[in-house]
């Protein structure tokens, strides 16, 4: 992409303004299409759709042109079948209705005969000796399955024995290997323990020798230190005796002063106790016991302080007996510090009392605020309970209406089910009646033929599957014996058989 200025004839850069010049932008076609392709996107999409539609239409027309003359195309087959159907209906009106009736009757008779034969066979094999033949076939199948199960169990048992033997052999081998490994590990441990024992014995021996040398040097040093300390102690005792002799008079003066200070402090403590007893009268009854306990505690504290001061005084007196003027100044500083501490404790106690009073006021205000909040919460809970009762009543009403609707739907569905069941019962009764009518006329010869045909079919089925035929042959023998007994009474006589008096124990019914 590049930009260029153009001049008309007679124009030069010296006599032409920039606004009078021609400016052009040069760009390739592909770059320009990349810039402007978003402007005609819908047009290009529509063109692609049109091209696809034209392509499909061309394919469709080409296919129609190609298959138009095919005799077995879908369209031609449909047209030919429609034409044949139209000709058939047109020609049917010209045929004799009687011939058409007999033709349809023959077709229906064949269908009816096939259906009757099928029903006869199904009913025949479902009762009496044919049913026993079916049971015998099932028994042979059961015996076969039982033999297979026995073989399978024996194989499983043999497999379990083999697995157990292999498992026992593996356990014995693993146990032997474990014992061998354990023996080797114990041997290694014994060797290692032997080496460690030798090393420890050497270490203990070296340690004992080193300890003996160190103990000897330590004992000698300790003896020298004790001798030196005894000498220094004798010097200190002599110095202390000299100080005690010099300072007896000063100690007596300090003792008298200390007793005066003690008397003043006791007076101050008594005064504080009187003020504290008067202050306790202004407290409420609810705080009286607590304040009394605080007073007792304060009194104990003061007694403790007085006792401590007495002990300190005794200690000071003892120190004055054993210390010089510098120690006296330090004692004065200690007394001043103690008095400052007492003053600080008194101020801290006053601050604690003021703080307790503020806390009681704040606790009372917080209690009132808490009561207000609880009251608001109770009111809100009552509102919600009322709303919940209303919602529950509405929900129960809707639930009862839905239950009534569901119960009515169940009643209607039960009625429909009963009607359907009644219709099914009527259809079943009709079918049973048809079967009874079909089976009401069966001759002995036909029954025997049907039985032996079914017996041959069962035998062939058992032999083809390599099953035992002994149960089937036993049923056939019993049925033949029964047939021989019944044939002596009525040989090849046709009777009307009724299913209601049929006995499964015999091959023929008794009317």
From TrEMBL:
Keyword Disulfide bond on entry: no
Signal peptide interval: none
Keyword Glycoprotein: no
Gene Ontology CC terms, in alphabetical order: axonemal microtubule
Recorded superkingdom: Eukaryota
Composition skew (Basic and acidic residues), residue ranges: 359-374
Coiled coil (UniProt feature): 176-289
Family annotation (InterPro entries): CFAP210
Region (Disordered) location: 346-374, 489-511
Alphabetical UniProt keywords: Coiled coil
Official protein name in the record: Trichohyalin-plectin-homology domain-containing protein
């Amino acid at each position: 992409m590049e930009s260029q200025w153009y001049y008309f004839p007679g124009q030069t850069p010296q006599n032409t303004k920039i606004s009078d010049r021609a400016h052009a932008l040069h760009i390739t076609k592909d770059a320009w299409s990349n810039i402007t392709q978003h402007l005609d996107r819908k047009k290009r999409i529509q063109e692609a759709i049109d091209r696809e539609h034209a392509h499909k239409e061309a394919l469709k027309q080409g296919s129609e042109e190609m298959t138009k003359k095919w005799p077995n195309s879908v369209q031609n087959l449909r047209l030919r079948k429609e034409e044949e159907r139209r000709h058939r209906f047109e020609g049917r009106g010209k045929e004799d209705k009687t011939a058409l009736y007999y033709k349809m009757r023959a077709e229906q008779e064949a269908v009816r005969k096939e259906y009757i034969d099928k029903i006869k066979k199904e009913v025949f094999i479902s009762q009496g000796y044919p049913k026993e033949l079916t049971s015998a076939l099932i028994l042979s199948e059961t015996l076969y399955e039982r033999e297979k199960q026995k073989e399978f169990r024996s194989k499983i048992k043999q497999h379990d024995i083999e697995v157990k033997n292999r498992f026992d052999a593996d356990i014995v081998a693993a146990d032997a290997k474990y014992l061998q490994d354990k023996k080797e590990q114990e041997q290694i441990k014994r060797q290692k323990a032997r080496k460690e024992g030798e090393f420890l014995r050497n270490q203990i021996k070296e340690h004992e020798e080193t300890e003996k040398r160190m103990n000897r040097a330590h004992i000698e040093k300790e003896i020298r230190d004790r001798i030196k300390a005894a000498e220094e102690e004798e010097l200190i005792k002599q110095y202390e005796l000299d100080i005690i002799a010099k300072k007896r008079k000063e100690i007596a003066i300090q003792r008298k002063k200390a007793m005066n200070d003690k008397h003043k402090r006791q007076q101050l403590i008594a005064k504080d106790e009187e003020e504290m007893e008067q202050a306790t009268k202004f407290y409420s009854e609810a705080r009286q016991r607590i304040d009394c306990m605080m007073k007792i505690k304060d009194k104990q504290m003061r007694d403790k302080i007085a006792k401590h001061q007495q002990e300190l005084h005794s200690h000071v007196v003892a120190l004055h007996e054993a210390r010089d003027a510098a120690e006296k100044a330090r004692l004065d500083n200690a007394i001043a510090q103690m008095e400052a501490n007492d003053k600080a404790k008194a101020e801290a106690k006053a601050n604690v009392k003021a703080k307790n009073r503020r806390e009681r006021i704040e606790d009372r205000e917080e209690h009132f605020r808490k009561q207000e909040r609880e009251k608001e919460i109770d009111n809100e809970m009552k509102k919600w309970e009322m709303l919940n009762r209303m919602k529950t009543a509405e929900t129960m009403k809707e639930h009862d209406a839905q239950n009534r609707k569901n119960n009515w739907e169940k009643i209607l569905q039960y009625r429909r089910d009963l009607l359907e069941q009644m219709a099914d019962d009527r259809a079943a009764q009709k079918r049973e009646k048809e079967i009874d009518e079909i089976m009401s006329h069966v001759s002995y010869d036909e029954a025997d033929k049907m039985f032996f045909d079914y017996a041959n079919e069962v035998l062939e089925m058992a032999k083809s599957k390599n099953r035992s035929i002994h149960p089937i042959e036993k049923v056939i023998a019993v049925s033949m014996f029964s047939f021989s007994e019944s044939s002596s009474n009525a040989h090849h006589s046709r009777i009307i058989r009724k299913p209601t008096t049929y006995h499964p124990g015999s091959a023929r019914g008794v009317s």
